[in-house]
Amino acid sequence: MNHSLSIKLVNISSNDVADGNVKLTLGLVWSIILHWQVKDVMKNVMEDLGQTNLERTLLNWCQLSTKGYEKVEISNFTTSWRDGLAFNALIHHYRPDLFNYKELLEKDSLYNLNHAFDVASYRLGIDKLLDAEVSQKKGHREPASRQTLVLELVPCTIQARFIMISAAPPTSA
């Protein structure tokens, strides 16, 4: 039985893995993570947005979730996240009970990044996947780590929505 999983592999072969090519092997691992985790976690969002490209779906979800947040304009998984406000807005959109977003507008990027990563870690149980000092550097263009952190936030947002719906007073008929 032949199944096509449509995982996009570019410039890597079994020889690269066997020869210990770290960069290409990590790229392969990221492709597999992106394919399966995004596909499972974002399948409903993909249907709602009419998207098939996984990275584009994740980016669109971030844009929709942070729409209207001051000083947040998400256009990619590199520079849009450098000041920490996008991470904080994404968390705040689904868990406004955790902190006051407007207070972060006066803070510097290092503070905002540390704040987002600490809230994600200590309040949402998400491992610290990124370092604030590295994330704010202009030359840091590693989108995979940001995408992974955002993917870790998705189940928390779904849980937050469920809690809000469950806590809502019943409507009378």
UniProtKB/TrEMBL annotation:
**Record's keyword terms, sorted:** Actin-binding, Repeat
Family matches, as PROSITE patterns: ACTININ_2 (PS00020), CH (PS50021)
Residue ranges annotated for the Calponin-homology (CH) domain, each copy included: 1-37, 52-162
Single annotated GO MF: actin binding
Name the source organism.
Plakobranchus ocellatus
Q: What InterPro entries does the database record attribute to this sequence? A: Actinin_actin-bd_CS (IPR001589), CH_dom (IPR001715), CH_dom_sf (IPR036872)
Q: What is the lineage of its organism?
A: Eukaryota, Metazoa, Spiralia, Lophotrochozoa, Mollusca
Entry protein name = Spectrin beta chain, erythrocytic
| Gene3D superfamilies xref list | Calponin-like domain (1.10.418.10)
